[in-house]
Amino acid sequence: MPSIRVGLGESVPERKKGEPEMTPLNAKDPEVATHGGENSSGRCLLTLLGLAFILAGVVVGGACIYKYFMPKHKVYRGEMCYFENENRDRAVEPYFLPIAEEADIREDDNIAIIDVPVPKFSDSDPAAIVHDFDRLLTAYLDLQLGNCYVIPLNTSIVMPPRNLMDLFAKLATGSYLPQTYLVREEMVVTEEIDNVSDLGIFIYQLCVGKETFRLQRRDQITGLQKRSVENCHSIRHFENSFVVETKICQQ
Questions:
Q1: Cβ atoms within 10 A of the Cβ of 190, count?
Q2: What's the rounded Cα separation, in Å, for the pair 98 and 122?
Q3: Cβ(82)–Cβ(243) under 8 Å?
Q4: Beta strands of 7-117 (E only): which ranges?
Q5: Sequence-ordered list of residues with C-beta below 8 angstroms from that of 212, at least 6 positions apart, any chain
Q6: DSSP state of 12
């Protein structure tokens, strides 16, 4: 009697003797599968490390951009009123002139940068002024002439950065408007400065590319007499509780 085979599902053909064993298409090599899993994990780890480096670069780059390109110092704006007449006792009704300026005071750098706009009630020139307390130098950039002038810092007129910051903080409130007086000083051009790179980074940035001259106070030059052919310009500014008129003369 013929034999009958009963099975669940499809029958699997019998392998003849000598034929190679057939591997199902959907079967995976365990070794290949293991290596594939390791490669996938490695790629994920490298991707995460790359993203971490990119994120760190963005954070550091953003901090550098903020540090070097965003304003780091508060700019103060102050205004004073000053009496111009030298003999105040004879004036029955003294007339006070207003003067306004902006100050970028960098206490960490020991620098004060003063911006003097075009005045409304005087014939003085607009200017940018740098007071370098480390190098003990002052530089005036006459914005009308386009010339730069350098002189030793006069600490009897210019307050140090901390005191100057306190003064402008009071002026910035608007409730403190002192009525003060005018101090005059006269400077004379003595020589031209060919290289401004030795004057410090802040004065260099102010004066580079401009004709730059060295100044000396007239009262410190022995035997120097005023000449009618002198070309003089004035800058009125304040870095103290009084206003200063700096007169610069060039022969």
A1: 13
A2: 9
A3: yes
A4: 75-83, 96-106, 111-116
A5: 147, 148, 149, 150, 192, 193, 196
A6: P
Sign of CA dihedral 76, 81, 86, 89: negative
Closest CA to 119 of 242, 227, 238: 238
Using one digit for the tens of pLDDT, what is the confidence trace for 66-117?
Answer: 444 445 568 899 999 998 765 555 444 556 788 999 999 999 999 999 999 9
In the block, residue with structure tokens 């009262």? 219
3-state secondary structure of 90: helix
What the block records as the tokens of 105 is 């005071």
For the beta carbon of residue 146, count every other beta carbon within 10 angstroms.
Answer: 10
Neighbours of 137 (CB within 10 A): 17
Distance CA 61, CA 68 (A): 11
Q: Which residues contact 169 (CB under 8 A, 6 or more apart)?
A: 76
- pTM, rounded to two decimals: 0.68
* pLDDT per position as a tens digit, 20-51: 555 554 555 555 445 555 566 777 778 888 78
User: CA-CA-CA-CA torsion for 88, 93, 95, 96, nearest 10 degrees?
Assistant: 70
